[in-house]
């Protein structure tokens, strides 16, 4: 039985949330605010994004070798508006080929930044990226074939907040760094000298990389932030390579207002959110009714069963405090908790004219340990598959007709996987043979696949030609690099 099966079958997720221990609790560091570039009021000239090697202090006084985008680690938060076209100059100052994919954007294949839009060292990629979609939290990250896991882990990831007229006028907290915070959650591993490590072996390919240390906005958790007395909005990205995070509040429910592709129909109250790599959720925290509250994150146990039991008996740690918010006497956003947020009809499966089946295949018989030894940090693209075929840049797997609505039905032979489709948002019809949790019933571009089938209803409105196809893949980045990815055109 693998780690994820154990969590599921034993109901251990609930125990994780109540275990309550957390590591490094002693030193509460301030929440780092990711530098924000606000483009909603206008754009002048081109927008440089410079990808470069750097050193970064994760808060443990060690100089880790990282990558950054205009920063020493991670990229900026870009705040943009529906209707704009973003003239990016993506400059590759790394000694390695890279790409930059806009995850969640409804854009044509030729500006999508997938593995076909390689940027050689020293080169600049200059896509004009149109923003046609509604308010939503999106992100961008490396999508270099066979190297996505290591490059993203090192820091090639950033956040793009799309606003629209309705979201800018909405009665919600929206002052960045005051009552509106962007949180990039990641798990990391550090060597004895405190520097960031990423070592792969067969087991890491199999489960994906699982770190033992939670990092928020590039700083080791827990972190702390003072906020005015009022409502506070947290826009959360799981930018882990492979780790599913169980989010909860220390006190009271999570109040979820948005998922990957935009606002939910109404605020959803839930005890916890199971958040896969690549997913985004927005929550509201009411600091009028409590002096402080904390965002808690349940991590998967590092080494399976033994470590997990160790956690229960106080030996290891499974639930970490990510962020503690403490109110000051300043008056903050005093609006009501919103009820109605967006007009969202339930998905109607009768709109689909095509159904496609995708089976994710972990167990293709490849020797992962040998691949790890031979390929260093690159899996070689041939060990995992979808519908019997490992990812091949020269093969188009599916051809979609532009404007069609389809049902994609995804199954898997083992483990829990987050499935992602480029160039669209979709609605989840079923997740593991059941209706999705209410917080995942709105616009999404990620769906969990484990037992039974997960079905999504998706419409493709933008073109992706043969030389710039879209990807669909598992968002466990080591699985993606190992070949659990396919390509499709929209014409
Ligand atoms: Cu977030 Cu194909 O990626
Ligand atoms: Cu994507
Ligand atoms: Cu996977």
Describe the protein in words:
The chain has 491 residues and is mainly beta. It has 3 domains: 3-24 and 172-331, Cupredoxins -  blue copper proteins (Immunoglobulin-like, Sandwich); 29-169, Cupredoxins -  blue copper proteins (Immunoglobulin-like); 349-490, Cupredoxins -  blue copper proteins (Immunoglobulin-like, Sandwich). The chain is 11% helix and 39% strand. The chain contains 8 helices and 34 strands. Strands 12, 13, 14, 15, 17, 19, 20 and 22 form an 8-stranded mixed β-sheet that branches. The protein has a 6-stranded mixed β-sheet with strand order 1-16-24-23-18-21. A hairpin with a 2-residue loop joins strand 14 and strand 15. It is globular and about 60 Å long. It starts with a helix and ends with a strand. Residues 1-26 and 302-316 have low confidence and may be disordered. The structure holds CU-O-CU linkage and copper (II) ion (CU) (2 copies).
